[in-house]
Specification:
Helix content: 25-40%
Number of domains: 2
Radius of gyration: 19 Å
Distance between the termini: 31 Å
Structural class: alpha/beta
Number of helices: 11
CATH topology of the largest domain: CBS-domain
CATH architecture of the largest domain: Roll
CATH superfamily of the largest domain: CBS-domain
Length: 272
């Protein structure tokens, strides 16, 4: 495993701190290039679009009107975990609706609270027009260094970390993630953690390409594993995720995993 601290205190981290002052409202952090799909499209098509664009969700539009959202988690838990065929399953049968909406002038904390309360990504509307989308990853890039974010990761991390041996087939990993509704599995070699395999990896490397899930997960996992120690502040964890462009941060002490914290966990900590 690769221990991230204290190496995170580099020029990238200092730039992250400087950038925080610019992030005041939703419009400053939202993704403006919103990808869409029709409700009649198959989930295989949805997977293709998400994989090609390296994103985790699509806004579903009917007659040019946004009506819902479909995510990579929907694909895992509502299709693959149930043994359904993505080629046969339609987006409209899987999508979530109505959309959770927010104004571009809403404050960052309001967005964080709404995301946790409503349990989903936020569609940004301005005068009735869709202008952007906010995800947990967007929010962690903007969490200010205030008392709320000095809470420690220990209070919000998931302590039961799901692991799998490197020789486990990707198909089995996909089933585990779908059934447990989790976005990642820590991959081990000789019972020692060395990498991570996420729902985004599954989407981009397999589902989007129509590739069979027969490969061993160890060959597809991201490695080395970036970790942080217990006692790390929520702010520091958010900075690490933003700088390293990751959405999950395993927590380890002396090379032993004691938990994992996600972008959504960080948003929840800030929203309290």
């Amino acid at each position: 495993m690769k221990k991230e601290f204290p190496s995170v205190l580099d020029s990238a981290y200092m730039q992250y701190l400087r950038d925080l002052s610019r992030y005041k409202e939703v419009k400053h952090i939202m993704s403006q290039d919103v990808a869409t799909i029709s409700p009649e499209a198959s989930m295989a098509e949805a997977a293709g679009v998400m994989g090609e664009k390296h994103i985790g969700s699509l806004i579903v539009t009917k007659y040019a009107t946004p009506v819902g959202i479909v995510t990579e988690r929907d694909l895992l838990s509502k299709v693959l975990a149930l043994g359904k065929d993505p080629l046969e399953e339609k987006v409209e049968a899987v999508m979530s609706y109505p959309l959770i909406t927010i104004s571009p002038t809403a404050k960052i904390k309001e967005a964080a609270r709404m995301m946790i309360q409503k349990k989903g990504r936020l569609a940004v509307f301005d005068s009735g027009r869709l202008v952007g989308i906010i995800t947990a990853s967007d929010l962690i890039r903007s969490l200010p260094e205030v008392p709320e974010t000095e809470v420690k990761v220990d209070d919000f991390m998931t302590k039961e970390v799901v692991t799998a041996d490197e020789k486990t087939p990707v198909a089995e990993i996909a089933k585990i993630m779908g059934e447990k509704r989790i976005g990642s599995v820590i991959v081990t070699s000789k019972e020692k953690p060395f990498g991570i395999f996420t729902e985004r990896d599954l989407l981009t490397a397999f589902l989007a390409k129509g590739k069979q899930l027969i490969a061993e997960v160890g060959k597809e996992a991201s490695s080395p594993l970036i970790t942080a120690p217990p006692g790390t502040s929520i702010h520091r964890a958010a900075a690490t995720m933003a700088i390293k462009k990751i959405r999950r941060l395993p927590i380890a002490i002396r090379n032993k995993l004691v938990g994992i914290i996600t972008a959504r966990d960080l948003v929840e900590a800030y929203a309290k």
